[in-house]
Amino acid sequence: MWTDKLVDSGLFKRNRLIIPNAKRIRKLFSSLLTQEDVANDDATLHDVNAPSHRVYLGSSYNKKRDPEHLPPTNAWERFGEKVRLISKFMQSPASQFGFRVACATTSIGLIAFLRQTQKFTYKYRLFWTIIMTTISMTPTSGQSVFGFILRTIGTVIAMLISWIIYYVAGNGKVAGIIVLYWFFVACGLWIPLKRPQIQSVGMITVITITLTIGYELEAKKLGSAALEATGQKYLGILVFGPVRLATVVAGLFVAFIWTIFPYPISEHGSLRRDIANSLYILANFYSIVHETVSSRIRRVEGDLSDKKSPGNRLERARIKAFNKQILMLSNMKMYSRFTKWEVFIGGKFPKKEYDTIIQSVER
């Protein structure tokens, strides 16, 4: 086996940087100018019963027709089709989410540009609120609630640990602080490595401990006057932690508001759409496998090493559909887990029924 040869060669015994090859990078950039639903001409093939070595994969693999535009017939119309892709990109879910993030960041960052509040913003480090708003925005409401709780808990834990590190070490003994800091940071980094579901707790705990302890050691080394020369008010470690907590909670709250405003994007809606797409991909996968078996029975599969042979085309289509299905399963399981964090209005979400469908698709 190819993988066994790689293991025997010792390739996996050392760390190495995996860089995509030029062909994959070229396909990545070329996909920005093509529509996702445009199929390859390889899929538009003749029937397997016909006297030909080509396989028909079904009309679902044909190019999706536009009810408002005929296919382009000249260079100017083809150029116009490329221009229309810009509007499709701008109205995509990713662009809409990016616009929400920009609005949320602007709503809290506006106070930094007003004359009455500019000094207060910089003095008490309200830019932390802007940062937390940006990194805490999530596309769906359930993830927003889950992230709000985890990051708040992580900040509270970090504030308490910072006090423990500073005072247990002998009220500011640098050597003791460094030892205890290393120990608690190592414990914090264990969370994202072993519990990736709650990795935000570990990451924000490590970051907050580093900021708090580093700020206090800097003040101890340079003096509070040197720190206040930058325009920021010096805060002792007992005040620095609560200020950090307040700014983080404020940023999380703003992120939560803009996640549900002007309308919420719920997990159950995303889960429903992904299940429908998954069933469609599963049907395509079944048809590909069926045609593969039929071509093998009729011995019209051809040379699998030839990229133009029916067997090679079917194999590539099968792998592509399989990879899409695996990705969809991962998304569906994630959305299903986050549905319990949503605030439902009306009847409950039928999570059990949807989980049954997900299990059936996986099998």
Q: Top keywords for this entry?
A:
single chain, 363 residues, mainly alpha, 2 domains, 14 helices, 66% helix
Description:
It is a single chain. By secondary structure, this protein is mainly alpha-helical. Helix content is 66%, strand content 0%. It is built from 14 helices and no strands. Residues 37-55 have low confidence and may be disordered.
Number of helices: 14
Rg computed from alpha carbons, rounded to a whole number of angstroms: 28 Å
Biggest sheet layout:
none
Mean of all residue-level pLDDT scores: 83
Order of helices and strands: HHHHHHHHHHHHHH
Helix content: 55-70%
Q: Based on Cα principal axes, name the global outline.
A: globular
Extract low-pLDDT stretches. Answer: 37-55
Number of self-contained structural domains: 2
End-to-end Cα distance, whole Å, is 26 Å
Structural class by sheet pairing and helices? mainly alpha
Total number of strands: 0
How much of the polypeptide forms β-strand, as a percent range? Answer: under 5%
